[in-house]
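Hi R.,

Here's the chain you asked about this morning:
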Amino acid sequence: MKNTTNDNAILTLGNELCFSLYACAKEVIKIYRKPLEKIGLTYTQYIVMMTLWQFGDMSVKDIGEKVYLDSGTLTPVIKKLEKSGFVKRQRIAEDERFVKIILTDKGLKLKEKASTIPQALEGNIYISYDEVVTVYNLLNKNLKGIKEGIETS
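And the predicted structure, written out as tokens:
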């Protein structure tokens, strides 16, 4: 990424951090595709299931906050997970507008199969462990800053 004031270079794809983040995320998710297909999940379904495995039953809103997805994107993902038998939706009695997502026995058992998924990246990350930690920390620092900036604006 170059620091330039040349007007011709301002809209250069290679100068855009957002493009590098987008392209790298897309390629990393592609690496996950084959092992996830073996257990019947897409990447988005996988991150929803990881959230439920980690935090337990949650409302759709709470899941969305954890995985940075709005309800319009999340609802079809949850419907597919429910159709596959991994989760069930339950209206919250106190307020029928809210839906709680509950892991089924099948969804809980899937965690064991999914435990091998992170190994799918082995040999496909081309930076050192220390660089991975640095990138992870910087991305999370930036994400936190973006979230705080949105909440205060």
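The helical segments are 7-10, 17-38, 43-55, 60-67, 71-83, 105-114, 129-152.

Let me know if you need anything else.
M.
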